[in-house]
């Protein structure tokens, strides 16, 4: 049984259709991404999963429970990252964690969690004095303090510098290694590609596709391109004869080889058989962004900030 089951979810705010028709399942232990541009309906979807909003249509089940009707039960198993405005400015880091820990029957050790999140020295610091990255890490700590089976993390690296983003990604992988199922909302392609086992591409309140990052890319990109400078002269026909190769062209001293299947292996082994080394080798492949554009017919608007 999937740990989360969303079927034909529909949610409106007045005349705005925030979520039109969204269905997906999340398996226990995976990092499931919800990826889409701003306004796609990602936050509304996870708010319905957390029981913070009541669907106008369709159904949501978390471990078979209805998040609205069985809110108390769902809160015991699902930890959600808070928006930072939800904490009072004067509360200290330790106080916030102790408060949240008190809501749960078997919470994590707050001091250990602070250590894991690189906030060990900040226990007595007031919320208002934390940097953006520290606030972000505290909100992750608060999502995890109840030892949840599911953690919902929404735009977790927005506003973080590149090093803090990488640290946060590592932390998420550690959390998953402890067996926690993670639902990750993001509009960052690189984050989704790096972290997610599977992801739902959402656009305009609808699911455009669900697959692994590699699977999504493979759907739109059948061709790859290798570019290199051969260490010694080589007949093009040696490469065009390979079944995986569809085209070979020259750009000055460089060869550009396009093809399918296991193109790099086929080309490199053939070069080696002719005692040729591929210098300045570069490989181009489609990205998750190409997949999004191909599947929605739209460019993925980079978010401000
Ligand atoms: P995302 O998380 O993908 O950015 P949201 O779920 O936040 O998308 O928003 C989806 C749509 O619903 C957007 O058009 C947004 O402006 C609108 N919306 C979100 N929250 C509210 C709200 N509380 N009241 C009215 N409209 C909202």
CATH homologous superfamily caption of the largest domain: P-loop containing nucleotide triphosphate hydrolases
Strand content is 25-35%
In angstroms, what separates the terminal alpha carbons?
A: 39 Å
H-E string: EEEHEHEHHHEHEHEEHEHEEHEH
- Give the overall shape, derived from the CA principal axes: elongated
Query: For the record, what CATH class of the largest domain applies?
Result: Alpha Beta
E-strand count: 13
Jot down its keywords.
single chain, four-stranded antiparallel β-sheet, alpha/beta, ATP hydrolysis activity, translocase, Rossmann fold, cell membrane, six-stranded mixed β-sheet, Multidrug ABC transporter ATP-binding protein, about 30% strand, ABC_transporter-like_ATP-bd, binds adenosine-5'-diphosphate, 13 strands, 2 domains
């Amino acid at each position: 049984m999937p740990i989360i089951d969303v079927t034909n979810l529909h949610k409106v705010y007045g005349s705005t259709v925030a979520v039109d028709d969204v269905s997906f399942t999340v398996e226990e232990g995976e990092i499931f991404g919800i990826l889409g541009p701003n306004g796609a309906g990602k936050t509304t979807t996870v708010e319905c999963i957390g029981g913070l909003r009541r669907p106008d249509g369709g159904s949501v089940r978390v471990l078979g429970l209805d998040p609205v009707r069985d809110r108390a039960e769902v809160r015991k198993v699902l930890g959600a990252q808070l928006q930072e405005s939800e904490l009072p400015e004067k509360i200290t880091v330790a106080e916030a964690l102790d408060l949240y820990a008190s809501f749960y029957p078997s919470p994590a050790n707050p001091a250990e969690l602070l250590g894991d999140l690189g906030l060990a020295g900040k226990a007595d610091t007031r919320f208002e004095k934390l940097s953006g990255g520290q606030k972000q890490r505290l909100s992750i700590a608060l999502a995890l303090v109840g030892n949840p089976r599911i953690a919902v993390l929404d735009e977790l690296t927005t506003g973080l510098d590149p090093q803090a983003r990488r640290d946060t990604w590592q932390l998420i992988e550690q959390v998953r290694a402890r067996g926690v199922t993670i639902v990750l909302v993001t509009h960052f392609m690189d984050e989704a590609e790096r972290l997610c086992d599977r992801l739902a591409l959402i656009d305009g309140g609808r699911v455009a596709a669900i697959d692994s990052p590699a699977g999504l890319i493979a759907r739109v990109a059948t061709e790859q391109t290798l570019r290199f400078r051969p260490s010694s002269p080589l007949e093009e026909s040696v490469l065009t004869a390979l079944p995986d190769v569809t085209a070979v062209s020259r750009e000055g001293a460089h060869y550009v080889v396009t093809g399918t299947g296991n193109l790099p292996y086929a080309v490199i082994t053939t070069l080696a058989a002719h005692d040729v080394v591929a210098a300045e080798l570069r490989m181009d492949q489609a990205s998750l962004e190409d997949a999004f554009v191909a599947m929605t017919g739209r460019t993925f608007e980079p978010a401000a900030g």
